[in-house]
Design a protein that fits this description.
It is a single chain. Helix content is 26%, strand content 23%. The protein has helices spanning 11-18, 114-123, 173-186, 213-232, 259-262, 267-278, 281-287, 294-297, 327-332, 348-359, and strands at residues 26-33, 40-47, 60-63, 76-86, 95-102, 130-140, 190-195, 201-210, 235-237, 252-257, 314-316, 323-325, 337-339. α2 runs parallel beside α10 and α3 (173-186) packs across α4 (213-232).
Length: 372
């Protein structure tokens, strides 16, 4: 099994230094989304004291020409702190800081989808939109081969691995347990985890989160997963179809509700939203992966618990549909629905914004509307 050289360095030696007192000063790790719309970058600065609010964190900058975000001749980009979490690697009082990226002219970078998402969320805050996202991922060795798979072949067919227990069924649980605890420490609203259908594939769930908080918490949860995997010397892949053939892909099923949907008789509002979504399928497919639907085309085949990318469908308890209404919601006539189309590598800001635009702002057509 190929693991990284860094993971073989002595963690005991490193801990000697991490145990040293740091005085009143605090390390703040600034985190941002790079120009791919999928990758995360980070760097650390020293603060004189522990920040209690976002407003206490200074803006910073970085070289955008090295992150696919600008040209070398005009490469300074601004980091604007937006959300702060506890740092589970360096521990209190140190911080993780999720940032928006602005260009030299203070306009949002192309992959900064947070700013528009926050604006759209602000338009519907009185409806209290809640989201829960189910993030699937695959653990790979540094050679790109799924963790625990035979080096020159395949494991046994799918069946025993989903929520499986035992060394022959659960591949890489140490990563999962470490990530879960790191999220809890950081203050991420992680609410569960399980082994998935393909061996070495796992899922964690984040939510319920209201409005912009959904994207913030999922991106930090992804960052923590990458960092935990770095320590173990393996790779977390969010590719929606990491292994071709008769193996499940990886999605990011998104559960959505409003105050009206959660109250008595809410099923009516759920059904109205689904009708709006049915008329805007291609717009959502484009928003649901970073390549405008090309990544999802490998996953949404109509097989392996997915719907067909070219067709919209909805049903109660149907895992082969675009939209699933949980059976309990059908019985209680209130609650939420699940959009099963987003890919594992989606941008949660784009996904949640698209749902708000179509379901609550009643937008139609293939392009998002512009608001003043």
């Amino acid at each position: 099994m190929a693991t990284s050289a860094s993971s073989k360095l002595s963690k005991t030696v490193k801990q000697q230094y991490l145990d040293l007192p740091q005085g009143d000063e605090v390390q703040a790790m600034y985190i941002w989304i790079d120009g791919t719309g999928e990758g995360l970058r980070c760097k650390t600065r020293t603060l004189d004291s522990e920040p209690k609010t976002i407003e206490e964190l200074p803006e910073w900058n970085f070289d955008g020409s090295s992150t696919y975000q600008s040209e070398g001749s005009n490469s300074d980009m601004y980091l604007i702190p937006q959300a702060m979490f506890r740092d589970p690697f360096r521990k209190d009082p140190n911080k993780l800081v999720l940032c928006e990226v602005l260009k030299y002219n203070r306009k949002p970078a192309e992959t900064n989808l947070r700013q528009m998402c926050k604006k759209i969320m602000g338009m519907v805050q009185n409806q209290h939109p809640w989201f829960g996202m189910e993030q699937e991922y695959t653990i790979l060795g540094t050679d790109g081969h799924p963790f625990g798979w035979p080096s020159n072949g395949f494991p046994g067919p799918q069946g025993p691995y989903y929520c499986g227990v035992g060394a022959d069924k659960a591949y890489g649980r140490d990563v999962v347990e470490a990530h879960y605890r790191a999220c809890l420490y950081a203050g991420v609203k992680i609410c569960g985890t399980n082994a998935e259908v393909m061996p070495a594939q796992w899922e964690f769930q984040v939510g319920p989160c209201e409005g912009i908080e959904m994207g913030d918490h999922l991106w930090i949860a992804r960052f923590l997963l990458h960092r935990v995997c770095e320590d173990f010397g393996v790779i977390a892949s969010f590719d929606p179809k990491p292994i071709s053939g008769n193996w499940n892909g990886a999605g990011c099923h998104t559960n959505f509700s409003t105050k009206e949907m959660r109250e008595e008789g809410g099923l009516k509002y759920i059904e109205e939203s689904i009708e709006r979504l049915a008329k805007r399928h291609q717009y959502h497919i484009r928003a649901y992966d970073p390549k405008g639907g090309l990544d999802n085309a490998r996953r949404l085949t109509g097989h392996h618990e997915t719907s067909n990318i070219n067709e919209f469908s909805a049903g109660v308890a149907n895992r082969g549909a675009s939209i699933r209404i949980p059976r309990s919601v059908g019985q209680e006539k209130k609650g939420y629905f699940e959009d099963r189309r987003p890919s594992a590598n989606c941008d949660p800001y784009a996904v949640t914004e698209a749902l708000i635009r179509t379901c609550l702002l009643s937008e139609e057509g293939e392009e998002p509307m512009t608001y003043k």
